[in-house]
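TA notes, week 10

Several of you asked for a full example with nothing omitted. So below is the full record: structure tokens for the whole chain, then the designed sequence directly under it. When grading your own attempts, check the secondary structure regions first.
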């Protein structure tokens, strides 16, 4: 008994116990780990390979053969899969012609090709990932909090209800009524065109979902009736001058005609 007690208190005993615990943990994980992990890895590697082929055929002319950028286009190293999914799924890339900004148009790559191209660019460096369905679920967001965040960070360009607006040098902030929830999230995370990047430290994932919930609510129309384009005092003032002043002039002319 004394010999057993002496071995238990040996200085190497904690190290031996830790090694045994690590071996046990590794064995349990190997037994319980999903058997499809190898297949998923092979599929991802194949996506990267196919994505590289698509990149060389459609993107390398501007972004360079290694995606490190040229004088015509920026580097894509570190932009992440979300940036690729946003640009390609909205048809902005590949770009048809040079201009102040890339315009939305019918997409040129299908879902599978877009995913493959995104996988390749993501393999070049870490960056924002494509959000999950839960992350962009408008029903799980708080629209009232989203309204505060949107009006603080986005309304100066996109208008208070997402109707869009003009920027400098021929650029513009697009209307957000028809933009998908996934693309709204990706735009905030990646900052396309002149838009700043709102990373998770600036606007958290839950707050991004709140913004999405607010913008989705705007698709139901104005609760106050005719929105006049949702352009605020500009359209409202024009309506007052054209219609209101026009009625006053008409009334004055009618009174003058009656008096004569």
């Amino acid at each position: 008994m004394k010999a057993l007690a002496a071995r238990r208190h040996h200085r190497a005993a904690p190290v031996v116990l830790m090694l045994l615990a690590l071996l046990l943990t590794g064995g349990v994980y190997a037994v319980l780990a999903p058997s499809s992990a190898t297949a998923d890895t092979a599929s991802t590697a194949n996506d990267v390979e196919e994505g590289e082929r698509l990149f060389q055929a459609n993107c390398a002319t501007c972004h360079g053969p290694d995606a490190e950028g040229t004088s015509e286009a920026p580097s894509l190293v570190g932009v992440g899969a979300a940036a690729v999914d946003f640009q390609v799924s909205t048809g902005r890339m590949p770009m048809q012609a040079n201009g102040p900004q890339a315009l939305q148009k019918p997409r040129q790559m299908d879902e599978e090709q877009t995913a493959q191209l995104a996988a390749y660019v993501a393999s070049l460096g870490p960056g924002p990932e494509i959000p999950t369905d839960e992350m962009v679920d408008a029903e799980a967001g708080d629209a009232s909090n989203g309204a505060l965040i949107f009006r603080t960070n986005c309304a100066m360009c996109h208008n208070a209800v997402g109707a869009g607006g003009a920027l400098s040098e021929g650029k513009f902030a697009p209307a957000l009524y028809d933009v998908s929830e996934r693309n709204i999230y990706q735009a905030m995370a990646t900052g396309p065109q002149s838009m700043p990047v709102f990373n998770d430290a600036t606007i958290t994932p839950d707050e991004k979902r709140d913004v999405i919930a607010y913008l989705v609510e705007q698709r139901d129309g104005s609760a106050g009736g005719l929105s006049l384009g949702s352009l605020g005092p500009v359209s409202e003032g024009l309506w007052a001058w054209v219609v209101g002043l026009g009625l006053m002039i008409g009334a004055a002319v009618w009174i003058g005609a009656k008096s004569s």
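The mean pLDDT is 85. Use that as a sanity check on your answer.
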